[in-house]
Automatic annotation (TrEMBL):
It comes from the Eukaryota. GO terms for molecular function: hydrolase activity, hydrolyzing O-glycosyl compounds. The keyword Zinc does not apply. SMART domains: X8. PANTHER family: GLYCOSIDE HYDROLASE FAMILY 16 PROTEIN, GLYCOSYL HYDROLASE-RELATED. It comes from Triparma columacea. This is GH16 domain-containing protein.
Amino acid sequence: MGPVSNYQGSRIGFALTMLVSTFILGCKLSLALNVDSTSTTTAATTASTTTNPTCEYQTVFIDHFNSLDLSNWNIVSREKNHNEELQFYTDRKENVRVEGGMLVITPREENYGEKKWTSGRVTGKNKRSFKYGRFTVRAKLPSGLGLWSAIWMMPQDAVYGEWAASGEIDIMEADGSRPGLVSSALHFGNEWPNNRYEGVPLANPFDGTCPIREHDLSADFHDYQLVWTPTKMVFLVDDEVTWEVDLQRDWHLDPNTKSPYDAFGQPWDQRFYFILNCAVGGWFLQDPVEGSGEDWPDAQMLVDFVQVEQRDGDDDGLCGVCKPYKRPSPDTLACRVKAGLTEADVSGPLQWVCGDENVYVDVDCDAIFASHGVSDDDVVTKATLAFDAYYKNGGRTDTACCFGDPDGKSNCVAEVVCDSGGDDGTSPTTGAPTASPTASPISMPTTSPTTTLTATPISISTSTPTSSVHSSPTSAPTTSPISAPTTSPTSAPTTSPTSAPTTSPTSTHTTSPTSAPTTSPTSMPTTSPTISTITPTATPISNPTPLCPTCKLKEGATDFSPALNWVCNQDIFRLSCPDLFPPGNSEKENANIAFNHYYLGVVDKQGDQGCCFGDSDGFSNCRTEVVAAPCSASQPSPDPPQPSPHPPFPSNPNDLFVTADSAVTLEASPVPYSFNVIIVSGTLTIDSNTHVRARRIEVLPEGTLVIGPDATGVLIELLHDDCRGPSAPHPDDAVAVATSTCLRSGQIVSRGTTRIEASPVTSWTLMKANANTGDSVIEVAECHGWVPGATLVIANGALQNEAQELRISSVERVSTFEDETESTNSFCIIHLASQLTQHVHAFIFKTGPPVRQEVMYLKRNIVITGRMYGLASEPRHRQGVVVRQHKTGTMQISHTRVEHCGRIFIGEYCLHFHLLNSSPSSFFRSNAVVDGISKGITVHGTHHSTVEDNVVYNVMGVGIYVENGKEMLNNFFANVVGCPTVEGCLCRGCVPSQSFGDESRQGAFYFKSAKQNFVDNHAFGALACFLIDYESFGSMFLPSGKMEGNVFHCKSFGWYPTNAFPRNVVQDANGIVDPTSCRAFKIDGSDNGVEVVIDNHTEYDIRDFGASSYEFSDIRFTNTRIQGRTALYQKTYWRSEGTGAFCYKCELIPHQFVGLNAAGGEALMEFRDTILSPGVFSIPHHGYVNGGLLASHYWFSGDVSKVSIDKIYDEGLSDPNAIIMTVGDVNHFMDRSRAAFDAAGIGCTNAFPDSPKAMTCPSGNGKFRPIKIYSDGPHDLEVTVTDPTSGAKQNYRFPHYNKKSSFVDIFAQQDGRIVYGGWAFTVRAGAEVSLKSMDKIWAIDFGHRGWDEPVSILLNLEVAGDEGGRIQGCTIRDDHVRRFMTPYGPLVQSGEVNGVGIHALCS
């Protein structure tokens, strides 16, 4: 809310522009004066009927304010203000709350602190920030003197300096005393007080439009919008353009100060977050007078929703306003007289009253009427003359005017209208603006009667033929008791999705109503469905005998020497056996002593069942093993206490059918509801404080299941059979799994609409300060909804092996004002029930803020649970419950705990979107998925869904999974996946087809399609934090979506796509890849690669490797910090045309005895403005297996002041290579035997004893480049080089090199083969290089693309027996054209070179 005065241009000029020239055509916005009105109308009509296929915005964020989700918003609490404002912003519900699906901000006149007014503000700082897109806030503004409501955005990071150098975007500001006007502005330039601003002043956004919109913006909701692309910002109200700004210019306007910007478009190239507030007073408007609050006691700023839409690969243009509406022609405005008026109504001192400026302009009516000879009773002519005199001839552009008494619009006799009515002198009918959809996509029928089930008997009517609750045992399906009906109603509710049931959802009917409510908008059934309830009984259902872990001695085992170990998964725990085994014990007795000491005493709390007592080499020589056996009376079941043991488990032989014409509510009750299966075709609502037991809950396509919003105390207990054993289907047999009768139990399966929303809590947060071992108090950033007794998990820090699980003793919330930022300095002090067992310290890089550990909150107010069979066994022997949205419908689950979940069968996961295709309304948000197996959250065959702010902990297998490689642009935002120890959450022997992600490379996140938006996620403890592997050949070439803000600390790998070649891949609406678009080359042979940027990325404590990939291309890291054993771990790299530096503004910290494992071939790998400490390289990592002719060039460019190459390892490389490293103007090359210049003569020496072939050359010796000559050989290549400095000639002979890379064939998609053999050597720029070959030369490649300034050599070529191949005096530059070139060599076809001929390389 910066300054808004002194704008460039006048309001009238701007409004005239909007009147005469703004229209939409084919998604293009045209702004020009003097546009012919006829053509304008035609264009607008065309736009209303044409859909531009390029308008592909997808919703990436929407908040309908069903609750105040603190994972999205901060509630500001502070007294200090800017802009001379008078309010105290508080976080009280009196000022900020959610009510009726709206965010309600209420200004109040009251003494609070030192202030006399209070109000509310929410911000998205550090929660939600965005760059580019279509932003919509639907709001109703308050009216009243001194009320300053605003919808605005501030930069997430002060990249260009403090306010306003980093920018401010004011989407809408309004003065409550003038409720018809809004303004917009941008703030920029230098830091205050040398900042600048531009914008449009307070104006009616609907001037000159037909139909005339409601002038008082406080009277209704309106859409306040911003469309933001890299080149433009367009501000709109209800799709009407109010201001357009060209961003591609220099935003530093003060010639007397240094610019904070170094490129056009800055600072509008960064992420901004929302701020919504209603201030009181300030320089922008007239302050209220004490006591004036009585004039606006009901003033509220209401926000219906906040929506952000983005598109993949934003470009210039305004698809954001490509909507089928027609803009009006200004010529259709006219003045009409209200019907029934008389001469008396137009006599006296009438005025034109224009409410948008509170301007009362006198018109000399008598003089005008007399000059035209108008009779006294000609009211229409009088009004028209007055209209022409004031409105048309006076150059007015407002449309909210009336001709009437001086007191305002209350007594208008004539007004400006749209000329679309009849000619009878009456005003035409003008409709209200069409409202954008505002409600949640969850449908609620409006015409169905509501049934409430309670836990006590109610009257049952038997006179009606329909039944909403089918309780008769004989009416259940004749098949399996958990089978769904074979047919289902197909009609979905036809009423508004936002309507609530017409009868109270909490009323209990004790008699059948005989008539529908008279207020219902549509007719209801004249008879009521049968209403029944089931009274819980004490008859228990027999459960399987609980099993406990015990130690079993293997037959024939005798050797129990002191050197034996308990081997548990990969953790080896040595016991001091002589101290444990009393003399004379039997082997079995000794085994049980060791078992009890280690297992029950040490790791039982971890559920570690995969142990044996034997040699340290693993399970191969176990003497004993842990098995499951019936629990003895003295040995409790290892399974956690089952939910709600009071009263005894009731028996209910009936199914609950909620038919399509009914709405059923399960009310709060101390007694559980118990059903066999629940089948929902209508609407089933479950109230707070309700416990529901069922073997299966199935929501049919026309059905709706609703729990919440803001539900508390809800327990959904899914009963299921033990399906393990010999008769179980094979884990990968999808058909057998899907048709298994046994596996149908223990599931929530929805094909309709499911919405489960508990009262919100902070799902996870970060430590606010360090804490030490023995402390029982910690500080965290947020703690909304946290309560004593709940469990926290603090992630392991650097060099720590375990996370800490702790219980909360008490919670203190602290809120103070910090500085000039628009967020409060609030945090929480958490008192723990026990002491920390290890310190909790931030990891410190040289750049950027400290990296603090994650703190998960595992309690939720809705719990979906069930028994985890086999908890005393390894994960592969366990079986839990399942929640799935299946093929159709929408699922929204938020703030819910899902536990004891997942199965070792394909498709049987804890939370699962299954084959929904495009489903932007589906989301899993702020849930806790705990103690599961196989997969925590899965997105399969689904696009545009959202998985956000979830915590997944101790799920053995993959935490969050994208399953088949066809998925597109799902949003994975701010999730945390963690394992109890750094050995990962391995699920050994679970689903064979998924073992790579579950076991060998166990991934916190495991994606088989990279084309997802992946932002602000965290992972710890897994083997691989972010693993991308591929289900199909085509998915390997999918480009990524947004990749930014992620933080990883895992054992083996951080960012880890095994092989990735992002290309311009085409997918249809179902994600199916067009295989022709996967090709490496376009038709002309140029690269088909697409740049993928990983921004603001952090990895630390990666103990085995680092950010890794084997074969990859066109990946860039920007603003990245990585600390790990290798920091980078790569094999082959390729850089397509147009791809920027591999690492820009990076900080890389490898282990000093290992170094960066950089790729061996075959491109320019650039590190610009990067810190490398220690400066250790291991070159070329696996290049002799995977990388072409081994001619990579590593270039540290830009600021190299913090790069010092201390050591180079060559990994025992025996193959010839032309690998070069350049730091500033110092060159290192890895193979002196392939140096085609006098290395010793220019002062090159071996500076690294560990790499005897490597040489370092001092500065001042020019630029070094590799040259690669591709041939099938097999002869030596003769080379003569003329030195560029001395002119001396030297002769060389290089043997042919012909080792095939393991990945060569991946490029041979277009017909032909890759020539991967040949010769590579290093030359100095400016040299003359003469080549003589006995073999056919397929291609020559000098240097690499990507250098800031090209260099060249003079090339001569002679090929035996090929006179046409002779070249003499060819100047070839390192930026020469490359066609059909791969990281491994050129693609050739039918004996001919596909690429550019060698002669054509000469410039």
